Amino acid sequence: MFIGLDLGTSGLRALLVDAAGRTIGDANANYSVSHPHSGWSEQNPKDWTDSCIAVMAALKASYPSDFAKVQGIGMSGHMHGATTLDAEGLVLRPCILWNDTRSHSQAARLDSNPVFRKVTGNIVFPGFTAPKLVWMAQHEPALFEQVDKVLLPKDYMNFWLTGVAASDMSDSAGTAWLDVGARDWSDTLLDATGMRRDQMPMLYEGTEGIGTVKPDIAALLGLPEDVQVVAGGGDNAVAACGVGAMEDGDGFVSLGTSGVVLTARDGFAPMAETAVHSFCHAVPAQWYQMGVVLAATDSMNWLSGITGVTPSELTQALGATPEPPNDLLFLPYLSGERTPHNDSAVRGGFLGLDIAHTRNDMTRAVMEGVCYALRDSLEALRATGAAPKRLLAIGGGTQSDHWVAMLASILDLPLDVPAQGEFGAALGAARLAICGVTGADPATIMTKPTLARTVHPDPSLVEPYAQGYARYCKGYSAMKALQ
Question: Do 163 and 279 have their domain in common?
Fold first, then answer.
């Protein structure tokens, strides 16, 4: 038996599977995000470990005989977070998360140094890890002087389990310290941020074992002795493992809290100016590229909070079939935007709001705006040479048939919708554990999910949405001019 742990921004999910990757059971635990100041986003790592204790207890209680046969654990986690430890391995301050923008000026300064894009193949975004440490050096110098190790969120979890400070290539690629092509820390980039190689974790591929669960932690969690822990990976790379997006051109579009358009790549072919992320995959000798929308279903959640109507009620009120866009436009820059703008300061809004517009019009505009933002990411990926012919549609937003149909027509691509079942990051993490413990070839383990259906673009809507997208592209400059 194997366990995949998916450390998300709002909660931890545990998936218990057998050696063939079949789901035995799962468990979840939630935690909160702290926003002590504008633009700040933090979490207490103890919330993660407490959640791990809770989900393991739930699995053991529900599946005692299977839980007793666990041989390996794989971990997926939200990327870019800065978890700083002192020489005793104690956490120095709350983890600064991926969606924290306090270090925007530090990121801009690092990005102005050409060596960063040359070595990493990526823009230095405010959410990345390196500028967070530069911010600490400037604003929390006493804490910065005590930093012995910097760990990404899922790496802190692995450290708690094993006592080993380790990371994998896919997660480390989002720090702005990794030579992504060479798959190694860059001493040049570390030096440019006042950091040293000995403050970094040891690097592994996602399928490699880093150690076994410590006896005291195994006893606390009720695990058998000598359970192996593999390095795991960043959430999107591991989600790609979970949906079998492993070969060049395989990809998915995710309608989650944030939005992602991702394609696997056989080689490293970055084009940083597109604001596309070019990162190592969670398996050896492979890479992937993705565009990121910071507020996807988060935009619908925002509208839900404003209107007092649940997201599902908002979307269901539109019916099952999308309509041509009207003149109301929504820019989903509620937390800034990554691809293609790399702009943490821009903010969203409605353009063309009329007294005759209804709540349904606003809901439709929000959904269209998110889809247009994902189209931005798709076009940026195409500029790098990626050419997906179809995409798997995943994430909570895909529960809305209306939204999926709209997205297919706006992207002008067929979207494959998985059947009910386990897939995504928790399964991908378990699959990494299976490969690491058994030596199985990832190609035989990381298969594609069974499909429920394929949603094709509506020929009658493709051109109207293309015109709507053209209007949307003008909206960014208009909004920037007002700010």
Answer: no
Q: Which residues contact 358 (CB under 8 A, 6 or more apart)?
A: none
Residue 339: closest CA among 407, 398, 278: 278
Nearest 5°: phi and psi at 205? Answer: -75, 155
Task: Tell me if 80 is assigned to a ligand binding site.
Answer: yes
Q: Which domain holds residue 276?
A: 244-422+450-483
**Active-site residue list:** 235
Choose one of 221, 237, 253: the last residue of a domain: 237
pLDDT digits 0-9 by tens, 397-407: 999 999 999 99
**Distance, CA of 76 to CA of 425 (rounded, Å):** 6
Strands 415-418 and 391-394: parallel
Interatomic CA distance for residues 180 and 269, integer angstroms: 10
Cβ neighbours of residue 42 closer than 8 Å, sequence gap 6 or more: 33, 34, 35, 36, 94, 95, 96, 97, 100
Task: Report the alpha-carbon distance of residue 171 to residue 451 in Å, rounded.
Answer: 29
Q: Give me the number of domains the chain comprises.
A: 2
CATH number at residue 360: 3.30.420.40
Alpha helices in 345-424 (DSSP H): 359-383, 401-411
The reported pTM is 0.91
Residue 322 scores a pLDDT above 90: yes
